[in-house]
Please model this.
Amino acid sequence: MRHVRFPMMELKEAYDIEHLTSTQNIEHELWPLTEIDPKKAKFPCCIVWTPLPVVSWLAPFIGHVGICREDGAILDFSGSNFVNVDDFAFGAVARYLQIDRKQCCFAANLGSHTCKHGYNHSEFGTALTWDDALQSSSRYFEHKTYNLFTCNSHSFVANCLNRLCYGGSMSWNMINVAGLVLLKGHWVGATSVLRSFLPFVLVLALGVAMVGWLFVVALFSFSLLLLVWFILGSYCFKTLLEC
Model:
């Protein structure tokens, strides 16, 4: 059998063409996004947050989050085996944070990673584009049972960010997703601030009027227990919150 040997120059040219095509395809997905439009509920490449009924009245730092496609449509894990598309559960967006796609790792193969987690990232699941990552996470969570305390909307967003290796990290969880939005997020408007905190203030005032300062202690204890649960589950007993 006759073996054919290709000149190194031809092989290099073929590689350069393939690499250039792959790079152009990825850069095509990083073209400028459309403007954020709260009135139409369009938040391209954003993490969005809204208060939860009853729960946020008692602990205003707890809410419901979603992550948006490049066209601005919101995706959120809002029930067992169900990922909402372009219909944000629990009301309009109150806070949002746009993610810089340049801080994400879009890898076609093991050798094209821009992050330091090449093998682990490939094993977890990579994506060629932003929307590809969200679609993969959506398919994964369509087989998950929703639970406010163990597998919720924050888990879904964390899975998306880990699949994107956003910020060079694959350690996104409920706590740092919540912290990212609450500390760096932008309010949609004054109405959103009122909608997020007014119920809590009213419940607090009513509780103090009817029960006294013991109600404040009970409310603070409730918030502290929730915070401790999520911190322990995220960093100490990770199997508790894995989903």
About this structure: Confidence is low (pLDDT under 50) at residues 6-28.
